[in-house]
Every structure is written in C-alpha cells, then in structure tokens.
Amino acid sequence: MSREFQLFGAIHLLIIVSLPLLGGLLGWKSRKNPVSGRNTRILLGSFLLIHELVWYAFNLYKGWVQFPYGLPLNLCDIIVWLTIVAALTLKPTAFELAYYWGLAGSVMAVLTPDLGVPLASYPGIYFFTAHGGVIVTLLFLVWGRIARPREGSFWKAFLILNLYAGFVGLFDALFKTNYFYLCAKPAGSSLLDYMGPWPVYLLTGELFAILAFWLLWLPFRTKPPVKSENPS
After folding, report:
1. Which of 50, 90, 152, 209 has its CA 20 to 30 Å from the CA of residue 201?
2. Is 25 exposed, middle or buried (0-12, 13-18, 19+ CB in 10 A)?
3. Which tens digit of pLDDT belongs to each residue from 189-222?
C-alpha cells in the first residue's frame, strides 16, 4: 500500500464515516419526497455509469488492458455494474446481487483497501469513489424504501457468487491470472490475512459470505413488502 495512504488514518476514517451518513441522508430525503428519491437514484446510477466508462477509457489509454490482464472480471467490477442497473432500472435480481455482494464486498474494500497507489491520484480517487458510490447508492435504495431483497434472496446471491467464482477460477487457471484473489491474497492488508493461507482462505471466505449475506437479510425477514417504482 502506498505510504501516502494511512490505513485508518484521519482521511480514511472520514471516508468510512461519511458513506453511511450520506446514504442515510439521501434515503431520508427520498422518504420525505418520492420524486426527489427517483431523481436521486437516476443521478447516482448515471454518475456510476459515467464514472466507470471514464475509468475504462483511462485504462485503455494507459495501456493497462492487455489480455488476459486488466479485464473487468474482479467482483468489485461486477458489483459496480449491478449497482448501476439496480439504480437505473430497479430490477429485483440486479438489486439483490448488488445489495449482498456490494455491501459485503465493497465495505471490506473500503475498510481494508488494496490501493497500491497514492490516494491523491486518479486511480486512488477512483477506488474510493467507485466503492463508496456503490455503498451510498445501495444504502440509499434500502433506507429510502425504494428497493428490498426478496425472500430467500441471500441463498440465490450466494449460489450465483459461487458460479461466477467458478468461471473466474477457470479463467485464472487457463491464463495464470489472479482475478477475484482466487490464486493469491492481495498485496496490501485485507480481511483475507485473517482467513488462513491459500487455499484455506477460500473456504473461510465462503463461510464469511454466508454469514454476511444472512446478516444483511435479517432486517428484511419479517417486514411487509414496500411500495416502490419497481414495475415487477
């Protein structure tokens, strides 16, 4: 990790605290004014979309995309696109996958970032605005009572996550890459450091995912369905 970024330093703690506060504020405004809520979700989805396209253009310009490296195969890449679809369309499956994967994965990424670059650089700023944007958008959708996971959705999210991990694992094996950190842990500090060596941390990560998804489901297990813009 870059020496210019201090884990749990003042700036890092400010980022951590500001994300749920912003998500909560936007959710509160949405409950007070549904029209404002609709405009906010479109704005957040559009921001993430443009933000991601600019990042891809930057990667291509820098020559960082050279098959099989630099492809958007990491879980965080998929989470961003799922969040974009969820915000712009309110498709239930897109929201549910983004909700479980995003709040379990992006929160961990923000807490223990595998940054590797100065914070005051475009890649450093992108890292926190992308992950932070996902967290804020998902919290806004939930706390604004615009979307909610359906019954049994955490098991579906877990199954699809494993299917995707299997695909990425096959890609890693064929092309000697390390997408999804399936072959080695990230260079910087992360939660995986406490989950044992390879391949033990893969099994530990499975258990962590089940627990995290279940905890994310708990607030919705008894509440009645909410009215939303979702046509389905």
Report:
1. 152
2. middle
3. 777 888 888 989 999 999 999 999 999 999 998 7
